[in-house]
Amino acid sequence: MRQKRPLSVILVRQLMKPAFPAAIMLTFLVIATGLKLGLDSEEDAQVRQTLASETESLARQLEKDFLNHVIALRRMAARLALQPDMPEAIWQEDARNYLQDFQTFQAIEWIDRDFIIRWVEPLEGNRGAQGFNVAFSDERRAALIQARQTGNPDISGVIQLTQGGAGLVVYAPVGSGAANKGFIAGVFRMEKLSDALILPHIHGNFSLELLEDGEVAFSLPARTATNNSFSYTAQANLPSVQWSLRVTPTNTWVERYRSNWPWATFLSMLALGLLVSFTALLVQVVLKRKQDLLKTRQDLEDEINQRVAIQQDLARLESTDILTGLANRRFFMEDLEHTLLQADRQMRQVGLIMLDLDRFQMLNDSLGHQFGDELLIKVSERLDQLSDERVMVGYAGGDEFMVCQQHVEDIDDVIHLLGQIKACFSKPFEIDNEKHNVTATMGVAVFPQSGMDADILLRNADIALYRAKEQGRNSYQFYTEGMQEREVRRLELDTDLSEALARNQFELYFQPQLDLVTSRAGSVEALIRWNHPQRGLVPPIEFIPLAEESGRITEIGRWVIRAACQQLRLWRGTPLEHLRIAINLSGRELGEADLPDYLARCFEEYSVEPHQLEIELTEESFIANVEHNHEQMRRISQLGVHLAIDDFGVGYSSLGYLRDFTVDLLKIDRSFITDVTERHDDAVITRAVINLAHNLGIRVVAEGVETEEQLLFLKQHNCDMAQGYYMSRPVPAADLPGVIARGLLSVSLQ
């Protein structure tokens, strides 16, 4: 094993890389760019702050000047209210004085109570307005009537003037209510108003837009190009109109607030970066000469080390599995024999653990042998981290691993090691950029209690492993007396299973599914039973795992399909002809490419309509090989077969396959139904699953219904069907007509 290089050597190697001076230059470039962007940002903030101040000042000046004009018109209206018989000539003289004092007005008008313009000053350029009805729309009439009643002035907003062009009119009521004598109106052209009210320097430095109710009512462009990245909008508080001023500065004005400091800083940092990079390059040249002198010596040392490594590899190959890098079975067993001899002399215990990967065969068949090899390698890497002077890890072949623990003082030492092994599987394994959660089942045999030599100890650990699998995966089991008898019985049962198909020892039992809308049985689930000639009725829990291990599960699945089709044909013309049969298929069966074709042949042979058959698949079957299963289910669905998800909620519960796969039915697992009326969380989950399925157009079946309270709960929350012992246990086909005829399904749903 090569010695770890000192940190100083690693540092020198990094400094000698040709990219190092470039990295220095790039670092300075990033710093220079950051400084420049920061200074630019500060200058932009200053520009925006100054622009906001200018705009707010302009808005306040506009408010002040405009209100002065409104006050002047109200004074003129007050005089006319005090002298209602004022001659036109005197009024015109008064209006001319106002026009001279406030040169912003286009014209001053007197409007009678009927909203007709009677007097205009000056007449020149405004004759077209005389006699015009200013209440030219319902909106204007309503506003003027409101002003006449309250005595408050009204502003028209920007409109098209009768005299031509855009402008606005301010109406000052002459008296209010019944005493109103009309209005004194001041007419402004927008061009003249902007020239008079807006500060002169605006024209050279800014473009201006007058916004009324959010829309541009008037715009005053700048004399030069503007910088659209800067603009500011200020509100102008005027009576009865909502005006805003949007100011955009010219490029010339923005440049006044910019300096050369950002660019000076940027160029200074670049120059400093060039200097440091050149210095680093000189250092590299010096160090390289020294490196060349040491290279010959290093080459000689490498050749010597290579010869030593070759010798070590040859010794390792004799004892190591090529794929996993762990001790192979032969070397592990030899070491175990030696360990047991020492333990016998020292009167110590030795723990042997047999480890089997759960679902490995299914993953290997579905995702390919390359995937299986990669998974074995990654599992081996994690297990190998447990190796020390007391623990040895070996590869037994297939998906099995062996772990030997020496010098066991107490059984707790073995349990602690089992916990460490389980921790190796706590995180998912990433293969081909996809994460896979894999668990392991373990069997444990302890020397000398479970065996006195290596072969017996290994056999008993293997028996314990199978026992752990039967009780549930992702667990462990210690070997105890009596396990061997059970294993012998299991092997006998496995042998008999091969003859069961040939001798037609299987039988289908049927459990009705209650339709909660019609209170009738609309379908039944087919459950396989084994009529063993010596052992009697063998439940599926005892022989289905054996069938999956031996690969005979596919043959059994095909038998179930044919038996279900045959039963549907026998029910034709009877009171049960409306029933649909649901059958369960494993992931291995779904993986058979000719499954859709086999189904089609059975339908044709027994003259069965495909919609009378329903296939139930577990969530695990969906996830195992998504791409292949999607195509399989699409072909099966096209035949007209109903597809259902069994035991929903206890597996992956991924919403993705509900969206991507054609699913007709969802079966809620019995673990949620058992306490649905007592546990709040089970009730919430059950309701959520029902609502989710219905929103996706999927019907729902609840499994494991055993009480009337559970059934009423499901009925109240719109579950479609229910199945369980409360309605009926699974019965042979011969007893099913009697079960339904006796009304065992006629339960109270009120």
UniProtKB/TrEMBL annotation:
Domain EAL: 490-744
Residue ranges crossing the lipid bilayer per the database entry: 20-39, 261-287
UniProt keyword Membrane present: yes
CHASE domain location: 112-197
PROSITE patterns: CHASE, EAL, GGDEF
Keyword list, A-Z: Coiled coil, Membrane, Transmembrane, Transmembrane helix
Annotated ranges, domain GGDEF: 348-481
Coiled coil regions, renumbered to chain: 283-320
Alphabetized Gene3D superfamilies for the sequence: 3.30.70.270, CHASE domain, EAL domain
KW Coiled coil (keyword) present: yes
Pfam families xref list: CHASE, EAL, GGDEF
Listed SUPFAM superfamilies: EAL domain-like, Nucleotide cyclase
InterPro entries, per the entry: Biofilm_reg_signaling, CHASE_dom, CHASE_sf, EAL_dom, EAL_sf, GGDEF_dom, Nucleotide_cyclase, Rev_trsase/Diguanyl_cyclase
Compartments where located: Membrane
Name of the molecule in the record: Bifunctional diguanylate cyclase/phosphodiesterase
